[in-house]
Amino acid sequence: LRFGHRMRRLRCSWSSLKPLIIIITPLALLPLPLVIRKKEAECAYILILMAVYWMTEVLPLSVTALLPALLFPLFGIMKSSQVASVYFKDFHLLLLGVICLATSIEKWGLHQRIALRLVTGFGVNPGMLMLGFMVGCAFLSMWLSNTSTVAMVMPIVEAVIQQVLNASEEASKDHKGALNGISNLALQLEAGITEPVQTATEEPETVKAPPPYNGKYRTHEDHMMCKGLSLCIAYSSSIGGLTTLSGTSTNLIFAEYIYQYYPDCTVINFGNWFVLCLPICIIMLILSWIFLHWMYLGSNFRASLCSRQRSEKEKHTARVLRDQYNSLGPISWQEIITMIIFILMAILWFTRNPGFMPGWSALFPDYPGYATDATVALLLGFTFFIIPAHKPNAEQRDIGTFLKVGLFGFMNILSGHFHLPSVFFSIFFTQQISGLSTWVAELLTPLGSLPPLATVTIACLIVTSITEVASNAATTTIFLPILAPLAEAIGVNPLYMLIPTALCVSFSFLLPVSNPPNAIVFTYGHLTSMDMVKAGLGLNVIGVLTVLLALTTWGTPLLNLDTYPDWAPVVNVFNLHGTP
């Protein structure tokens, strides 16, 4: 009660501070453009103001994203027509098609069928249950937003957790003899100990049940298992989103930045990105599972991987998952069509311009570069509004289509998905016009005396730290226009600097407020902030090291990162080797 009262007082205090931050911040920063009367200072003023609003969230993120439309014309940085023109780009069309696919998957329940099938395929002991949920979440988040994935899967996890807790209480009454001498219940479950060991002197009726460990948890091991299952959902959804360009908004922002300022760069496409990031996702999932298993379930991995007998808890868990899957019924016509379109969209993305062979875009040699991934997304997204959702019959006049989007639904899509990312391109363009990014890059040029890998490592550590307290998209927005000129200034392939930075921005694992998936799992009450900090530090280390491994091994020949590309401008400065 005291904690709840303190939280209410804290929220009230913060609500009263929001108007002060909104008013005081622009006034406090005003000397910057007034004293330094340059376009760089004016652009920096707007950028810092937006960064403060984003980090504190005193205004909704999409509202803050509209500030350039107001301030850029007033400061004479860009015309209003120029600002408006960059609020809708090619990647928005790609995102619109992906949203249609994601909406159909959610509407017809295909996500639940995929998740439950993957989880039951791995096993139901605590260790394999954790791995199954991680793989299922990672796969779904490749195509759906991380937040939607966690919001859809976490109720399934919570139902399993509650059944496991109930089974724990029942099993403890029936297996007191089996529990004697065993200090880790989670490891006992994984070892498959299910038969009670009775002795001649045992008197079950005189044995008192142990008091609850912590409210709703009977034992410490039960609580640790709940923590591990909750964290694996949040972390795996962020990891899976790395794999595809449409998996996270930061990937889309990175891709659009490359298309906008390096238009001759053709190596960043859906296929190459998938080949680069799928091994990163797999390695991170395996290492994260090992780390979380060690933290919350113990170090007996053999019991998780080789256990064949099921305990009472595992039988209850299997029953819950089986009942949830059976409740879905047989696969429907709508799910089949959605799956076909989903697979077709992925195939067309891969084969548009795979790089190692001509893709289907080569069928239009007179219009190179005209068809993009957005073309595929829109084409197949459009079919959801054409294909009938039900077979026509005489009694049903309106058979409907797979998707129906009214005016308000369409406006909600625009406000929720388009305002925030689109403003980043305004900032990109503004920084280029004002020279702010070039000026900051010149200040950072001394980093060129370090080995390129060391410079990239420093950049990854910086963005990984900042993204814990700031929006992932905002962090990407701030750093891409700075690191690209820096790479040009020190003679390094810009992709060598930008790709790891764009990936590490998604490693916001430390705090409940770092990203929406963390916040969702935190609200279920199994975790504390310190639990997330301890586990998140390990995940951050795993993520940064895996990205650096990819950069120095398969990523270099795949994207030719060891050479300075022809599509990047040549800057007249000394490169890393000291030659002009």
Automatic annotation (TrEMBL):
The chain crosses the membrane at residues 20-36, 43-71, 91-110, 122-144, 270-292, 331-350, 370-389, 456-483, 495-514, 535-555. The keyword Transport applies. One of its GO terms (cellular component) is plasma membrane. Keywords: Ion transport, Membrane, Sodium, Sodium transport, Transmembrane, Transmembrane helix, Transport. Its main location: membrane. Belongs to the SLC13A/DASS transporter (TC 2.A.47) family. NADC subfamily. PANTHER family: SOLUTE CARRIER FAMILY 13 MEMBER (PTHR10283), SOLUTE CARRIER FAMILY 13 MEMBER 1 (PTHR10283:SF65). This is Solute carrier family 13 member 1.
